[in-house]
Amino acid sequence: MAFTSYYLILIYSLLSISSCIGQTSFQPKGLILPVTKDSSTLQYITQIGQRTPLVPIKLTIHLGGQTLWVDCEDGYVSSTYRPALCGSTQCTISKVNTCGNCTTTPKIGCNDNACNNTPENPFIKTLYDGGEINEDVLSIQSTDGSNPGEFVKIPSFIFTCTPTFLTEGLASGVKGTVGLGRNRIALPSQLAEILSFPRKFAVCLSSSTQSPGVIFFGDGPYMMLPNIDVSKNLVFTPLITNPFGTGSVRFLNESSSEYFIGVKSIRVNGKPVTINKKLLAIDKRGNGGTKISTGSPYSILESSIYDVVTKAFIDELSNATRVAAVSPFETCFSSKSVGSTRVGPAVPAIDLVLQTTRVYWRIFGANSMVKVGQDVICLAFVNGGLNPTTSIVIGGYQLEDNLLQFDLVRSTLGFSSSLLSSQTTCANFNFTSKA
């Protein structure tokens, strides 16, 4: 279903039920957000209802983000907005000790004796050291895992106010970001704590700019048409805690809220490539390792890793015709010389090998090759240069049509590899039929 249609449903639902939702004994099994890929920025966009009266707010998904932050400088009006005062429980939960004072008349987003944090816009690599912690109403749709249900109103959701400038680089009309990271005020943890369901969420990004993917909050089933529970065949690997912050500005006194996994080696067409194993580990300063990020549209590999992976890929695809590079990609082919399969172009699979050689995330052609011209496809990995903070960043394109379940209690990631092999996609959640 097109995202614009969901948007109209959201507006109608907020208007029609804003006076009564959240005031019944209804206990949702889980919650959902539709997520659509923006064709211009390649960001993943959702809608959430917020404020009193409720307003649909357009936000960009930030998988490793610490908070839901919103531009409060441009037209934020709400009768239920409340700043979090220094020393309050909200500030303690947010793990902030900084108190702010306004140089102007107090207003929404700027109050005396309110606690502040540092929200991040990963798309312009900028932090704002003065985001005000607040509470307000949040509305989000429930689900039984198969269909959408009624909207649930959360009266006191903790979020962060920022000035308008922090929205630079975000998709058109977007007012902030939804942080899904590993801390208590990120969306998954707050929803689970408030509504008493498991601290799990699952991300299923659609490759289409017309049909939305979905984020589930809570446990499965996660049903996709035609009646496929995509949570049934997940492979699991531990989530690794990076002891140091890894955002746009490094924090050496707190652990990262981003999601890291333990890639031990890489195979191309089933054959291991030679990699400096030190790059795959997180060192004592938080450098290295592998993280999953929607802050990058494509996967990024440290230069030496990039070189050996692309060389092996070219060697294994020796019958294909090479063509000129198309920035930011360095390895491109004529699509006429490459066949097609159910899981994308017929190219060598790239395996990210995890805790054992039998546990691996397989990247098929649908996620490894990107069309950049009428007859040109490129290997959808970017050279990250020498000495990047993180050696491997698994970007948005490699996540599309893969189900990723994050279990924050067990600290595990469940992943599907491409759902195309199961004859479904992340655009196949049934947003049109109510439970």
From TrEMBL:
Primary localization class, coarse: secreted
Record keywords: Secreted, Signal
Matching InterPro entries: Aspartic_peptidase_A1, PEPTIDASE_A1, Peptidase_aspartic_dom_sf, TAXi_C, TAXi_N, Xylanase_inhibitor_I-like
Cellular-component GO terms for this entry: extracellular region
CDD domains linked: xylanase_inhibitor_I_like (cd05489)
Domain of life: Eukaryota
Residues of the Peptidase A1 domain: 44-416
A GO molecular-function annotation: aspartic-type endopeptidase activity
Biological process annotations from GO: proteolysis
A Pfam family hit: TAXi_N
Subcellular location: Secreted, Extracellular space
Signal peptide residue numbers: 1-22
Family recorded in the similarity comment: Belongs to the peptidase A1 family.
Protein name: Peptidase A1 domain-containing protein
